[in-house]
Amino acid sequence: MKIRRLSTKDQDFDAALKALLAFETAQDDKIDVVVADILKDVKSRGDAAVLEYTNRFDKTSASSVAELEIGRAELQAALNSLPESQREALQAAADRVRQYHEKQVMQSWSYTEADGTLLGQQVTPLDRVGLYVPGGKAAYPSSVLMNSIPAKVAGVKELIMVVPTPNGERNALVLAAAAIAGVDRVFCIGGAQAVGALAYGTETVPQVDKVTGPGNAYVAAAKRRVFGVVGIDMVAGPSEILVICDGKTDPDWIAMDLFSQAEHDELAQSILLSPDADFLDKVETSMQKLVQDMPRKDIISTSITDRGALILVESLDEAIEISNYIAPEHLELSVEDPLVMSKKIKHAGAIFMGRDTCEALGDYCAGPNHVLPTSRTARFSSPLGVYDFQKRSSLIMVSSDGAQKLGKIASTLAYGESLQAHARSAEYRLK
Question: What are the DSSP calls for 166-207, one per residue?
């Protein structure tokens, strides 16, 4: 496994860093063409198209989409079938995620001006949300919790989950998570056809207001295309971790923290920043040693070789500056006083503070959401949360006295924009 070494003293460091971070987010044109055709077909033929694609891609033999729905009894049975340790861990994670997100609920508010005019904001939940969950080789019960619990806390009335089940194989952990999270309906469909079914609605799958959840390139392309018909959470890129360490943490710990993202897939990115050159050497030694026993050794090795780096910085302040440029999905501050350092962080999806706070805890059970902005989008985006499942309506109730003042202001500005009907509409209320 080759591990890239960079130093901020290198003359070409800025160019090297940009090259390291570069990731082509534009979708493959061939994938986009395929997805466009599938969505068009689902929109026009509904259940028939969804059934055809599901049977073809997932190698199933269902005779109707209704046959692909999983009832509550089966979800509960899946939960009951788990070993006690798994069931308790899933419940504990769900409880922590729910407790954290309950603090995010936005409230309606209003105020009344002296002349009696009332202004405010009314907060309401979305009616129905669709949750996409990867299937097949991947089993992500944690993603079920992270997407569905904030929606339920927000007050979403109906949560529809779709999950592909290649060869008819249903993952008990995923179904158990749906039971714990209170998912209302579950369909065994996936891919672009599942996104299309949620976005447009079919005879069996109800149309939703928003689609959330991770998926492959076809799912990502489909989410891009249906945005506007429905809302989406984000189109996420490969997973990322950036670690800032002062050189005083066990190098084996840091090496495994870097592996925790590298094992996701070959495009994942793991970067370490430290002002201690000897520590970087120790971490590299640890990585070369520990990777040998990792079940996903090949994926980790490719990820680290292609997109990973150990970077020598002149100081922790310089590390902070580089971190704010990278705007990582996951940022670990493995330093003496992480709380002080965190105040200087402007851009990061989630900040993990202290030597004992590994990123993996955030993936599963710390409480905050693990659906985070990637590919430097943390510069302008936030983690998934309750606020993504609530919306705001402005409240305006102008009193008769207020209409006299506001009418004149509006009329003046409307004439300035050559919108006479706007102006006269306001002027009609003037006494």
Answer: GGG---HHHHHHHHHHT--EEE---HHHHHHHHHH--SSSPP
